[in-house]
């Protein structure tokens, strides 16, 4: 947590107004790190975070210079998670990442952590996945950059609007599965994402892409996840696999209108391909063995912590 001068590390953080970035900001601040955050809308920062704020975006080199000047490390969490075209994702996830990396190298070349996605492992599955993998590949080819990329699976917790919508239905007794009932996936609580970032800051020599998850062996199937939720919510949950067309048609219509009007929808055919991919299981052993990081929250504990919020 401290630099060579025994002062708390100063960390530049992007994406702090978003869900995962906000969780990282809270986690690092709670561990005594000093923060300098980039925000287009500073009023959207998590309450109670004491941070220096640089107002602007990833497209302004001057703003990026102000963000990274004199910091001990950079954590890049800003990214586009919704879009109807490859350009929607690439403009932020690829171009923005590369611009920031170049300013880091130019202003002192401190360690750089990209908050990537497990989707980067399978870039052909969606435009989002391709953008995340492209960003990682560009970092790898950036001369002199000391970088790492955290590939997280689905992140849940009190601030996760999309997953909370699913969990509210489960708390009412219904779980609608979008794909193969036997598909497997990993999960991680938002607090454990923050602790993993803190572990990397203590071991910035750790480079390249790495996975993090809650260390549940071989992840979960949809049925296993429903059984754990039944215990956490103390109620029976019916697992339903609706006909694919019930999601395919709205996704196609949503994407059509988004392309016409330039909006960025949550549900698209690409998003469905991600949800239906059969293997989103992490392997975090390399990171945990080399840094000593361990997640603190298992899925049952995490779901139980959300019960009041789901009512």
Q: What is the helix fraction of residues, given as a range?
A: 40-55%
Low-pLDDT regions: none
CATH class term of one domain = Alpha Beta
Question: Treating each run of at least 4 consecutive H or I residues as one helix, how many helices?
Answer: 12
Global outline = globular
What quaternary form is this? single chain
* Rg from Cα: 19 Å
Rounded mean pLDDT score? 92
Characterize the structure shown.
- The protein has 311 residues and is α/β, with parallel strands linked by helices.
- It has a domain at 10-157 and 188-213 and 281-296: NAD(P)-binding Rossmann-like Domain (Rossmann fold), CATH 3.40.50.
- Helices cover 43% and strands 16% of the residues.
- It contains twelve helices and 14 strands.
- It has helices at residues 19-30, 61-68, 86-106, 127-140, 161-171, 190-202, 222-233, 245-261, 269-276, 285-291, 299-304, 307-310, and strands spanning 10-14, 34-39, 51-55, 73-76, 112-115, 147-151, 154-156, 174-176, 184-185, 187-189, 208-211, 220-221, 238-240, 279-280.
- A seven-stranded parallel sheet has the order 3-2-1-4-5-6-11, with helices on both faces. Strands 12-9-14 form a three-stranded mixed sheet.
- The model has no long low-confidence stretch (mean pLDDT 92).
Please give a handful of descriptors for the protein shown:
3-stranded mixed β-sheet, 12 helices, 311 residues, globular, single chain, alpha/beta, Rossmann fold, 7-stranded parallel β-sheet
